[in-house]
From TrEMBL:
Source organism, top-level taxon: Bacteria
Gene3D superfamilies membership: duf1285 like domain, duf1285 protein
Pfam families: DUF1285_C, DUF1285_N
Name under which the protein is recorded: Proteophosphoglycan
The DUF1285 domain, residue ranges: 23-89, 90-184
Amino acid sequence: MSDPGKADDLLAQIPASGRRGPPPVHLWNPPFCGAIDMRIARDGSWFYMGTPIGRKALVKLFSGILRRDGDDYFLVTPVEKVGIRVDDAPFVAVSLQVEGSGEAQVLRFVTQVGDDVEAGAEHPLRVALDPHSQEPTPYLHVRANLEALIHRNVFYQLVELAEPRQIDGRSWLGVWSRGTFFPLGPQD
């Protein structure tokens, strides 16, 4: 389904709502209608039919109807579900605000689409290591099985905040947010 009007059709199906936050896509179970030529690049840029989507409001709208089922990503409305490609994570955490310190510290991230997420038990941080280079790739849980890749500059801010802690007899560097300690990597 690479018909240029498909994106417009999807937009017309999104219910208007006075409430804040994304629609309840996890409650919608429409039939799968195939894939469209839409892709989210690793840097958080959205593309439709190979062309960047330049309108931030449109990207924000699409990001609100995004759902991940298993390893697959979909745009979901009450009446239609279409597949899209995501290179890594659909969101990128592009800024960080820090309030407090130690166990009382709160880390607040903002994604490229304007989502405001406080790291904590409901929104954990995790760091994946490349098996060959051992380079860390940090992620933040945003909502319902969707993550944000933490931008390199933001990760450097986290590293500056890191403190040591013993976990299972091993020393780790990590950060606190909302009373939860998130290991960033082993302390060598």
